[in-house]
Amino acid sequence: MACILDISPTLSPRLAVWPGDVAFARSVSCAMDAGAHLELSSITTTLHLGAHADAPSHYVRGGSGMASVELDAYLGPCQLVQVALPRGARIHPHHLTAAITAPRVLFRTGSFLDPEHFNTDFNSLSPELIDHLHGLGCVLVGLDTPSVDPFESKALESHQALARTGMRNLEGLVLEHAEPGFYTLIALPLKLEGADASPVRAVLLKEVP
């Protein structure tokens, strides 16, 4: 039997987005309380909302959109690693606290604990770490912060490392209740034509006796 651990924040107008980006809003067009025979609503939002996957088109001119990205990387064996770094620091290979043996790696940094409050001093990944993980056979890397690069980065070195290696990423995960160890990850993005990202409902499966 598998225990399902949800590692996605709730999508709501309270959910913090990158400063200047489009916040989540839901508009109700039909409501049963108003006499309609059913409920209908629509949403307006950035695609980089909460737990989400970036498409290559987000950081590479002419890169693939979300609908054409293969799904294999977002489903399968996963390793969760906890790190403790100064605020704002990038994670480097020497910060790894365990040998990496799974093809998908998630980092619990504890540097962005409140999804409804945006702080800019979150931890991020170094391009050296992405190259190192790629050399170990990793196909996806994720973390509990809004970006694999620091808030102030314009060069997006770690995003460019993802492009160079062909690895996929997940950002905005909620990992404070997830213990380091091995899981099965399910975090499939939506098939959005031409999109630069997609929200995901990310979960970890843990086998229990």
Can you walk me through this structure?
The protein has 209 residues and is mainly beta. The chain has one domain: Putative cyclase (Glucose Oxidase, domain 1, 3-Layer(bba) Sandwich). Helix content is 9%, strand content 28%. It has helices at residues 127-135, 157-165, and strands at residues 2-6, 25-30, 40-44, 52-54, 75-82, 90-91, 104-108, 124-125, 140-143, 168-171, 181-186, 197-199, 203-207. A nine-stranded mixed beta sheet has the order 1-13-11-5-7-9-10-4-12, with no helix packed on it. Strands 2-3 form a two-stranded antiparallel sheet. The chain has a two-stranded parallel ribbon with strand order 6-8. Strand 9 (140-143), helix 2 (157-165) and strand 10 (168-171) form a beta-alpha-beta unit. Helix 1 (127-135) packs parallel to helix 2 (157-165). The chain is globular and about 60 Å long. It starts with a strand and ends with a strand.
